[in-house]
Amino acid sequence: MKLTPSILEQLCQCRILVIGDVMLDHFIWGAVRRISPEAPVPIVEVTKETTFPGGAANVARNISAFSPYAYLMGRVGRDSAAGELKKLLNEEGVNTDPMLESDTLPTIAKTRIIARQQHVVRVDREVIEKLSAEELQQISSRLEVMLPDLDGVIIEDYGKGFVTQAFADQVLGLCKAAGKLVTVDPSPRNPLSWHGASLVKPNRLEAFAAAGIQDHHKLIPPLEDMRLLEVGEQLLDQWAVGKVLVTLGEQGMILFQRDSAPHHIPTRAREVYDVSGAGDTAIAFLTLALAAGLSAEDAADIANHASGIVVGKLGTARVMKDELLAAFED
User: Fold this and answer.
1) Which of 51, 95, 141, 156 maximizes the CB count within 10 A of its CB?
2) Of 25, 280, 298, 322, which is the active-site residue?
3) What is the distance between the alpha carbons of residues 241 and 301, in angstroms, rounded to a whole number?
4) Is 280 tagged catalytic?
């Protein structure tokens, strides 16, 4: 396809709510010149520290780079990490009013230590606890109010407890009744039924795990990979959805649709520096394009180009309008 300014403008008008596990990504950057005398580990001399929205929050900020109508619903604690996360999101145009605040749980935060562009270690601060009945009621009430003014909803599951089967059934039921697009980014640690979703976007690992089929990891063309094709067809039935898009890393993406042949989209990445956040970018642009009325094939193409851009950046980055236009021109 060709991405024109008019198509780009359609994406910019879409109103999208992202619901799921939100977190704060903390990066410590530095250099390594020696090994510690206390243990056989490198000493990182810190040069700077940065923070970015992570998880479902990163999906929302990818949307806010294009649309002024990006909304985020998730669960944070009443702590400094929540304040930092909301501040970053608000500065980038994400509306955080729908967020839930917990009196007992901390905001999920991940600290990555990077030395000379090499990932040294990651430190996680989190308590995984499923939604309470009261929290689920809050979600339902807020979603019902918002739905008339939305073009699409993204469910972003990182397996941190926010997305449960009761949550999925409630959200998908409300969206179906309102006739709204719903896309899902699932977690392999949290197998759920997605009946009623418009499209589910697993990566290869998640797709094979959900289908219960062993992946032999043979590097063959996706349309000749019989196990991959079997997985895609099985997930259409298993999840009772009309579309499944499997992301394949360096092999791009493959789209499965009912009553259509599988459609392969080759990767657009030129250089890969960091794959963190690539899935977030893919689901964000896929949903924007579908909400704008594009076909599933064209939406996947846009998502593929956007993911190819973001893996060329370090950290949880986002794609800007001029970068996407340039990628299609190239």
Assistant:
1) 156
2) 280
3) 20
4) yes
